[in-house]
Amino acid sequence: METMNRVFLVGYMGSGKSTVGKLLAERLGWLFIDLDCFIENRYQKTVSQIFDEEGEMVFRKMERQMLFEISKLENAVISTGGGAPCFSDNMQEINRRGTSIYLQLTAENLAARLQAACIDRPLVRNKTKEELPVFIQEMLLKREPFYTKASFTVDNNESNPQAVVDTILNLLPQS
């Protein structure tokens, strides 16, 4: 059986995909790719600009196209956008092309992490402190059925990125 040389990190925005992804890639000696940053570099626009100017559906098409492109790279840790696994058959493709890890957090912990980032995240930009945890809980109800299709689920509520990386390394098939 061929060993998978791609790890996809999935989870809601603010779940630690970029932080954990960079550390994991470093430990593996692999490339780290943040799907949203990849899209921004390719289209020379921020995700927020694409959402505002083109709409979410155009963004989701771009996202899918870029996901397929980067999932051909070898020895890569790929941090997907929070919504990427939830559209088309993206989660099925992610699992076909590598090992997927769902970084799971409670809605309360996600809200606390995102509170400071509300300005630059299109889906939570205009939410108040009171609205944010409610909105996140509603979104998790919709998205968790996709996230939980990941190869593995890792609890990231303790917010210790190195410990999460250790856990992931123990889950990955050894080559």
Strand content: 5-15%
The helix tally amounts to 8
Total domain count: 1
Q: Count the strands?
A: 5
End-to-end distance, in Å? 10 Å
- The level of helicity is 40-55%
Q: What form results from the Cα inertia axes?
A: globular
CATH superfamily: P-loop containing nucleotide triphosphate hydrolases
Under the CATH scheme, the architecture is: 3-Layer(aba) Sandwich
Named CATH topology: Rossmann fold
Radius of gyration: 15 Å
CATH class: Alpha Beta
Question: What profile does the largest beta sheet have?
Answer: 5 strands, parallel
Mean pLDDT across all amino acids:
91
By oligomeric state, this entry counts as single chain
SSE string: EHEHHHEHEHHEH
* Spatial strand order of the main sheet: 2-3-1-4-5
* Structural class by secondary-structure content: alpha/beta
Enumerate the spans where pLDDT stays under 50 for 5 or more consecutive residues.
none
Notes on the structure:
The chain is of the alpha/beta class and 175 residues long. It has one domain: P-loop containing nucleotide triphosphate hydrolases (Rossmann fold). It has helices at 17-28, 35-43, 47-54, 56-70, 90-97, 107-114, 131-147, 161-171, and strands spanning 6-10, 31-34, 76-79, 99-104, 152-155. Strands 2-3-1-4-5 form a five-stranded parallel sheet, sandwiched between helices. Helix 2 crosses helix 4. The protein is globular, with a radius of gyration of 15 Å. The mean pLDDT is 91.
